[in-house]
Amino acid sequence: MNTKMIKIIVLGILTAALLIACGSQKGESMMQKQLFGNMPDGRPVHVYTLTNDLGMEARVIDYGCIILSLKVPDRNGNLGDIVHGYDKLEHYIEATPYFGAIVGRYGNRLAKGKFTLEGTEYELAINNGENHLHGGLIGFDKVVWEAEPMDTPAGPSIRFSYLSPDGEEGYPGNLKIIHTYTLTHDGSLKIEYSATTDAPTVLNLTHHSYFNLTADPSKTILDHVMTIHADRFVPVDVGLIPVGELRDLTGNPLDFREPTVIGARINEDTEDLRFGLGYDHCWVINKAEQEMGPVAEVYEPTSGRVMSISSTEPGLQFYSGNFLDGSNIGKRGIPYEYRTALVMECHRYPDSPNQEGFPNTVLRPEEEYQKTTVYTFSTR
Q1: CA dist., res. 337 & res. 353, Å (int)
Q2: What distance in Å separates the CA atoms of residue 164 and residue 139, rounded to the nearest whole number?
């Protein structure tokens, strides 16, 4: 037997051994682990495929906890991949606008890359104009996490963990993070976050998938129908930094309290839309700050897909893909063009550490950071 044949046999044995399942019959949850690629230093990156009882499928890698694909049914029961992403690891490493990743330590922007905590000013990496965005140059989306697949009563689950050392990207404290995805049997992608620190720090984790509920990435999201459960939003300046107030939405094209087609008002000539180049704002959700409650709903009429979002977080950053320009060549060689996806990030408000009266983002050694966001899929 030659060396090539031995390698094929061994690979087959390993693949079979890495099936984690409560069974292999149709309709039963299952998880599979395979090699996705290697980091420049040779470390392996694996892809985990989660399948629930409904046949929904999520493919996740341990680099950046990135969701590569998410397949959910349309009203006729046909599965379609509803998130932007790449086929190869090197594309995520080379250039990506955070497709499908966890972002942090601080999701969204911090003005001028600075914050003051207990009398000490911390300077962070500047990577968005003059500001700090999504954790800096090497945020949590750009590191390899430890992965632990699990089969739970709710559905197949994978728990990622990472130790962010003191001083990473300028942040204080050794931070231990656990980030868990569960593809539930009732049709939800549940995302849970927890963290502890050995010194006071700031923390604002969130998830950054780009959704297109048509499952056709060549189409825009302008015909999607949006509802956001918010009476107020966080107005920003031209650098997308909050101006320090929470403003009523009445009469504003950012008002999505009633179901509204995304493209209906996106090009109106208002200061808010000019600064965001469309929708790229934080809505103040109508609920208690850490209470689990409804956040938003997105409906796509042609497929019938509905995505309902609930979270413990007080804010929702809705971004309408305004910076996509076709330069990101995605899965199956498809370029991701202008406004072909939307991002729905549940988190604390942008620049909260520098804004009086905004939600607390400080984590102390005696505390545990905990948050949950759930994306539930259905049809109508």
Answers
A1: 34
A2: 10
CA 228 to chain centre: 18
The domains of the chain are located at 28-379
Write down the residue that tokens 């604002």 correspond to: 204
| SS3 state of residue 106 | strand
Could you please report the per-residue DSSP string of 19-58? EEES--STTS-EEEEEEEEE-TTS-EEEEEEEE-TT--EE
Q: Is the pLDDT of residue 111 over 70?
A: yes
pLDDT at 18: 42
In tens, the pLDDT along 273-288 reads 999 999 999 999 999 8
Residues in the chain: 380
Percentage of the residues of the chain whose pLDDT score is greater than 70: 92
C-alpha span between 336 and 329 (Å, rounded): 6
Q: Is 100 helix (H, G, I), strand (E, B) or coil?
A: coil
Q: Which two tokens stand for residue 361?
A: 């983002």
The class (CATH top level) of 28-379 is mainly beta
Q: Chain-centre distance of CA 219, in angstroms?
A: 21
In angstroms, the CA 38 to CA 35 distance is 8
**CA atoms 288, 182, 137, 124: torsion sign:** positive
- State pLDDT tens for residues 190-235: 999 999 999 999 999 999 999 999 999 999 999 999 999 999 999 9
Q: What is the pLDDT of residue 287?
A: 94
Tokens, residue 204:
């604002």
Give catalytic residues, as residue numbers.
Answer: 208, 345
Residues 80/74, Cβ–Cβ less than 8 Å = yes
Residue indicated by tokens 């922007």? 109
